[in-house]
Amino acid sequence: xxxxxxxxxxxxxxxxxxxxxxxxxxxxxxxxxxxxxxxxxxxxxxxxxxxxxxxxxxxxxxxxxxxxxxxxxxxxxxxxxxxxxxxxxxxxxxxxxxxxxxxxxxxxxxxxxxxxxxxxxxxxxxxxxxxxxxxxxxxxxxxxxxxxxxxxxxxxxxxxxxxxxxxxxxxxxxxxxxxxxxxxxxxxxxxxxxxxxxxxxxxxxxxxxxxxxxxxxxxxxxxxxxxxxxxxxxxxxxxxxxxxxxxxxxxxxxxxxxxxxxxxxxxxxxxxxxxxxxxxxxxxxxxxxxxxxxxxxxxxxxxxxxxxxxxxxxxxxxxxxxxxxxxxxxxxxxxxxxxxxxxxxxxxxxxxxxxxxxxxxxxxxxx
Length: 367
Description:
9 strands, three-stranded mixed sheet, two-stranded antiparallel sheet
């Protein structure tokens, strides 16, 4: 009896040893939780995004003179939103080697999905991955079509690049709309996720200068929700107490189960205290607050207030400090595996900060 016990124990230990050896040869061990690093995205966004911050809403008792209609564009533009939303340096990026970084980062993100199963990651890690892949891919496409500055047809028509299946995910091809509607909005029911999809136009959620991570994804999304709802481009009060919200919301109402009161509650949750009553008491909510102008940085924004000018000047100072330095070495999506895969992008665009600095000289002198 005792011999049988020890024999069984010996066989069990052997089996366990063989199993552990097999697992150790896999790309990700069963007892490891991969953690993705997006430092390369942080680096390219740091030199291409101008953070404007939350602006003060000027919509209560507004007059219709604040609205105008284009001669050939059949939507209304809220002109009080022209200095809102974080700005992307489309002109400078498209003319520099930094433009080549975005497809390379996208390809590197695609490579991650070949190394690990994204659906087996913790939910916050999954969400950060998909939002980063979406936004990098969106920027890649927007840079390609620049200098188109009116994005109405580009981001709202079914035949645009939003449905182009150029993103590789294992053995399938995905479009931007696939990621947004068939993956993220299907799996993540928290309405705050809708603010993580960058569209490139002023009248949509902002792009932050930092990548999403498993640790910051929900805090960043909450910030973007507050920034958007409390801006004139996200929510506007009409003369008769009605609310005109961004057209962007029309494509995301599924996350509110298409129920107006759920949507109203969401607006109230993220609105400033001094406008919550107006949202709660509004009898009508319409989706006709729009601005499809590309959210790029131009000299027209020299009218920013002193705080905004300070933020822009800080960007110039940061670029100056990099003038004589090599671009930081970049390791893409380093995860805890037996053999870590690194994709170095530094050599591809290490002189970009200096190039951008040269293009800023005229604009910087005007601020």
